[in-house]
Amino acid sequence: MSRTVTFEVDRGVAVVTLDRPDVRNAIDLPTARQIAAALDEVDAREDVMAAVFTGAGPVFSAGMDLKAFSATGERPLVEGRGAFGICERATEKPLIAAVEGKALGGGMEIALACDMVVASEASWFGLPEVKRGLVAAAGGVLRLPRRVPRAVALEMVLTGEPVDAARAHALGLVNRVVAPGTARERAVELALSIAGNAPMAVRVAKQLVVSAPDWSEAEMFDRQRADVDRVRSSADAAEGARAFVEKRPPVWTNT
C-alpha cells in the first residue's frame, strides 16, 4: 500500500500531512486508515504535545475520493474514528487544521473535527452536499452549529454556498488568517505555543472545554472538580510555581 499520509514530529509537535495533491487530497479507504493510524500515534507518543493536520498542494481536501468509491464501493470509514479516519473522533491532544485553498464538503468536516483552524487568506470553507442531494453527515451538520451562530450554520448547510477565510474568521470558525502558503508554518507556531505548557494541564483543559457545554450551570463546578484537583496536586503544578518564582522556564514531567 502506498503512503498517502506523512507523519513528522519536531519539538513536541506532530504534523500529519494528507499527501494526495494529484486528486486534491481526496480520501479513499486506505488513506483514511493511514490518517487514523497517524492520530493513534499522536495520542500514544509521550513526546507529542500537540498536532497539526494539513494537506499537500493547493487544496486542503476534497473529502471522499468518489472515483475510488465508484470503483470499489468502499467508503472511507474507520471503526472508532469514523469518516476519513478523523471525523467521529480526532485526538485527545490539541489538533490544529492548517488550511490552504478549498476545504469543502468532507474537507470542511475534517477542519471541524480539529480543535483550531489556521487558514490561508485564499482558503474557502463550505458544505455543498445539498447541491448533490446529500447531507453533510460526517460532522458538518452536527459541529458547524457549535462553532458559528445557528442561523449562519443553517444558511451554509441549506444553501451549500461557501465562505472565504475572512468571513470564516469573523464568524469564529477560523482562529487565524495568514498569508497564502504559510498556513502550515503558522499552525506549527500555534502548536508550539501549546506544546510548551504543562502536558497534563493542557490535556485536562481541552477535555473540560469540550465537555462543559453539555453541563448545567448547577453542576459544572462539581463536575470539573476531580480533574482540576488532579492537575492542581500534580508535580507539574508545583514545578510551574517554582519556575515562576525562580524566573526560569519550567521543566515538565507530565506527573
TrEMBL record:
Record-linked CDD domains: crotonase-like
InterPro entries tied to this protein: ClpP/crotonase-like_dom_sf, Enoyl-CoA_hyd/isom_CS, Enoyl-CoA_hydra/iso, Enoyl-CoA_hydra_C
Taxonomic superkingdom: Bacteria
Coiled coil: none
Keywords: Lipid metabolism, Lyase
Residue intervals passing through the bilayer: none
Protein family according to the UniProt entry: Belongs to the enoyl-CoA hydratase/isomerase family.
Name of the protein in its database record: Crotonase/enoyl-CoA hydratase family protein
Organism: Streptomyces chlorus
